[in-house]
Structure formats: structure tokens, C-alpha cells
Amino acid sequence: MRCNLYANDELVGWAELTHTDPPMGCASGPFYPNESYGKIQPIIREYNLYDGTLGEVNEQKRIETQDKIDALRLSVVTEDGETLDPLSGVHIVDFSEELVEDPYQLDVLGLAFDIYDRLFPLAWQEYLDRVKGKEQD
After folding, report:
1. How many domains does the chain divide into?
2. What is the pLDDT of residue 110?
3. Which of 23, 29, 35, 85 is the most buried (most CB within 10 A)?
4. Which letter, b or e, does each residue of 25-44 get, where b requires 16 or more Cβ atoms within 10 Å of its Cβ?
């Protein structure tokens, strides 16, 4: 499912989201930034440094950086114009200095069940089939 990502109502890129964790309402996918992403990239990289993604965990600095992330008012909007409101927010992973191929990922964390089910109608059945398969092993 293609979605656009906005920071303070400015388009900063798009992502192709797939269902990743139906019970938690999570969806993730490759993120394709545009030129405007450069304005927020230092904040994203700083957060990734302190949350352990790129470096060691520093809880105090992570909290301070989270305030900067919150000020960006990140929002994800589907191609149909629906703004997603995940309970645990939107997270960008930026490995652009470490990886050449697929360096960005967008995570949408904690979508409500009814919204998740509508956006990813096959997700629950695929999840249940996987769980059932593991129980039979």
C-alpha cells in the first residue's frame, strides 16, 4: 500500500507499506525520500543514533530527540487521502550513510484493528496460518 509521509504538512517522501505485525497493528516498508526530507534528516539520524538503531542507547538524549521528532508532526496519508493515526507513532529508520541499497524504512506502529483490517484484508489470515504452522512443527 503506497502512502505519503509528511512533516509539518510538507511532503518528505513516500513508502510502500506491507503488514508486518497484525496483532500490534504494525506496517513497514521501504521509504523513498524526496528533497524535502533533507530538512528533517539530521533529526531522524540523531534519533536513530540514541535509540540504539545506529549506536548505543542513550535514554536521556533519546527523549530529548523524541521531542524534536514530535515537533515534526509526522503524518502518513494513504493514496485515498486517509490520514493514518497509529497509537505508537511513525518511525523512520535512516541507514543512508551505512547502506547503498534500501537505506530507508518507514514503520507505522499501532494502527487500530478496524483500520488495519481494512487496509490489509489478508494480513490476519496470513498471520493465523503462520501461527498455526508453527504450532504443528
Report:
1. 1
2. 97
3. 29
4. bbbbbebebeeebeebbebb
Q: For residue 89, what is its C-alpha cell? A: 507513532
- 103-123 pLDDT, tens digit per residue, is 999 999 999 999 999 999 988
Listing DSSP states for 55-75 in one string gives S---HHHHHHHHHHHHHT--E
* pLDDT tens-place string over residues 66-86: 999 999 999 999 999 999 999
Q: What domain range is 112 assigned to?
A: 2-136
pLDDT band at 130 (very low <50, low <70, confident <90, very high): confident
**H helix intervals, 51-122:** 59-71, 113-119
Beta-bridged to residue 7, according to DSSP, are 10
